[in-house]
Amino acid sequence: MSESTRPGYPGQPDRPWPPPGWKPRQDNRGFVKSEYERPAIRLLKRAGWEPGRSVGIADDLGALEMAGYEVFPGAIAFLREYSGLFLAISRPGEQDAVCFSVRLACRQTDRGRVEVHSELAGVRMVPIGLVQVDQMTVLLGEDGQFYGGYVYTFGKLGTSLLEFIENTVQGKGFLTEP
Questions:
Q1: Burial class (CB in 10 A: 0-12, 13-18, 19+), 7
Q2: What angle separates helix 39-46 from helix 161-169, to the nearest 10 degrees?
Q3: Is the pLDDT of residue 148 over 70?
Q4: Tell me, what's the pLDDT at 102?
């Protein structure tokens, strides 16, 4: 079976996919609408993100350099696409937010604390933002996973950006704590 066919029912031939004449539905900004869109994607779009977004990150890199962090390629790629986004999150009886701001994150935490968290997780990290209600610093690991830290606690928030955001929306705490 090729990638452009979909199996038919037993006894029927394969059907072409997508069907002839099929066109994706799009919203007013040109995004393809799907029947199900992950909550994290909806929040990112509401905050101004779109696939391929690219913003200037000289201020972010300057803040990280001034604080003494070594920036790895994955952090640069993340910041280019997501820096400056503010995700407003509503849960029953509680308002929260995720803010991707290196400058605020560097003010919130100190390099020594991030180094301790990096040692606990076994991966180099840089601060990339905050979860507002708790004032938790959000850290991006060189392994592409998301971590969070307070003064005395630390843990993994998600193995991907979408998992981190969806866990935050659901009010989940750390997935794992060292």
A1: exposed
A2: 90
A3: yes
A4: 96
Burial class (CB in 10 A: 0-12, 13-18, 19+), 22: exposed
The pTM score is 0.76
Higher pLDDT, 23 or 149: 149
Helix extents (H) in the chain? 39-46, 58-67, 73-82, 102-108, 111-121, 161-169
Widest distance between CA atoms in the chain: 67
Question: What is the torsional sign of CA 129, 94, 51, 163?
Answer: positive
**Number of CB atoms found within 10 A of residue 21's CB:** 5
Angle at 143 between CA 137 and CA 147, to 5 degrees: 20
Cα–Cα dist 173/178, whole Å: 14
DSSP 3-state of 129: strand
Which residue matches tokens 């180094």?
A: 115
Q: What is the pLDDT of residues 53-81, one digit of tens each?
A: 999 999 999 999 999 999 999 999 999 99
8 to 17, 20, 79: CA distances (angstroms): 11, 15, 44
Whole-angstrom Cα distance, residue 155 to residue 10?
50
